[in-house]
Amino acid sequence: MFYQLYELNHAMMAPWRTAADAMRLAFSNPMNPISHTYLGRATAAGLEVFERTTRRYGKPEFGLPETLIDGQPVGVHERIVWREPFCNLIHFERAVPKGRAADPKVLIVAPMSGHYATLLRGTVEALLPHSDIYITDWIDARMVPLSEGNFDLDDYIDYVIQMLHFLGPDTHVIGVCQPAVPVLAAVAVMEAAGDPLSPASMTLMGGPIDTRINPTAVNKLAEERPIEWFRDNVVMPVPWPQPGFMRMVYPGFLQLSGFMSMNLDRHLIAHKEFFAHLVKNDGDAAEKHRDFYDEYLAVMDLTAEFYLQTVQVVFMQHALPKGEMMHRGRRVDTTAIKKVALLTVEGENDDISGLGQTKAAQTICTNIPEHMRMHYMQPDVGHYGVFNGSRFRREIAPRIVAFQREHARHTNPVKQVIKGGKTA
Fold it and tell me: Where exactly are the transmembrane stretches of this chain (predicted)?
């Protein structure tokens, strides 16, 4: 009944949130003399903090209406080009000038680990000037009716293969964090089958390929508890009246609690500073806080079968690096990968996927030629810095673009200089 109690509590708080928002507007209205006093600003700030910490955050927008190509602004339009019950594939269509040579076609596989695909907004934004971008938009499990069936790790791998088939030859795939394992498994399955539509390259970023290496707090929790503990304590049915009523899920609010508990002091300090910025009328700093937490606090449910299988296979059994991972009754053989170039990227201070866990892909993919593989470790960044932020834009993204252009199969790469990188 825990999920039901959470929903009931949220509903009970709705009138208080509404009242707090109305009072905030009254205390911050410039026509109200109190709004120009410390008491008025402090009251309005406290009311906003209360409203924001008790609301449910909806799915954010990518909000990328344009990009720069060859130094010129061009429009960008989001379009869903492929649909399945648990995932949509979004294409960022760019108004590319006619006659311009094609850019690399890139499939970004976003994490299915609690947050929406918009968590990779910065990743998309940095690559968009140089690449034709597609991204997985995973569906909140509580919005998928039971009639659509289950979704587990095997289905995830199947989805990746289907999307690569849909996109056709000379596609490059990027797996960010959690998808590193299913992306690598999907490529191994395709290569073992001699699939001509296997990607030209795969880039794995901050992913748990082998969590025995430098285990983090997340990894240790999985090792300390039996799978039955996770099934009994964090899996629960979706309450009525959601479309996925009675579907067994790992709820987003539980995941969020886990995320925040890892750095609780940091979040408390951030909200204290947000309050202070509001009182001081420091609009820019307050808006940065809103933007970050609008994204960070927007979470989605995962299907129980996907979550439990991932915990068991990836974090408990370490099946992929040990050569024991199975997909549809067949062993996933990473040594079958021979024609797909491999780039692995890690952050020096990553506290989610420890240093060396992603690089392990280089070790288990033994038959990729040396000239088709590369590893890069970015100094002074944590987990999110691997795929977002200034160092990603300046140091990591140019390397990804250059690597993809170097290992394109069927198209003539565009010769250009990428700021912060090298000639590609």
Answer: none
| pLDDT digit string, tens, across residues 328-371 | 999 999 999 999 999 999 999 988 888 999 999 999 999 999 99
* Strand stretches in 53-131, DSSP E: 66-69, 72-84, 87-94, 105-109
3.40.50.1820, 2.60.40.1190, 1.20.1070.10, 3.40.50.300: CATH of 66-407: 3.40.50.1820
Domain definitions of the chain by residue range: 1-54, 66-407
What residues does 377 pair with on adjacent strands? 346
Q: What DSSP string describes 146-180?
A: GGG----HHHHHHHHHHHHHHH-SSEEEEEESTTH
Structure tokens at 217: 């707090």
The two structure tokens encoding residue 26: 């009254």
Nearest to 57 by CA among 307, 303, 290, 387: 290
Could you tell me the CA-to-CA distances from 178 to 115, 198, 218, 255, 280 in Å, in that order? 11, 20, 12, 14, 40
Averaged pLDDT score across all residues of the chain: 89
The answer to whether 114 touches 256, Cβ cutoff 8 Å, is yes
CB-based contacts of 287: which residues, under 8 Å, 6+ apart? none
DSSP labels for 375-419? EEEETT--TGGGTSSHHIIIIIHHHHHHHHHHT-SSS-PPP-BPT
Taking the C-alpha atoms of residue 422 and residue 402, their distance in angstroms, rounded to an integer, is: 7
Contact yes or no for 296/289 (Cβ under 8 A): no
Q: Residues 164-221: pLDDT tens digits?
A: 999 999 999 999 999 999 999 999 999 999 999 999 999 999 999 999 998 887 777 7
**Band (377; pLDDT cuts 50, 70, 90):** very high
Strands 87-94 and 72-84: antiparallel
* pTM exceeding 0.90: no
Residue 354: helix, strand or coil by DSSP? coil
In the three-class reduction of DSSP (H, G, I as helix; E, B as strand; rest coil), residue 265 is classed as: helix
Q: What whole-number distance in Å separates Cα of residue 424 and Cα of residue 417?
A: 6
DSSP string, 178-245: TTHHHHHHHHHHHHHTT-TTS-SEEEEES--S-TTSS--HHHHHHHHS-HHHHHHHT-EEPPTTSTTT
pLDDT of residue 410: 65
- The pLDDT assigned to 419 comes to 37
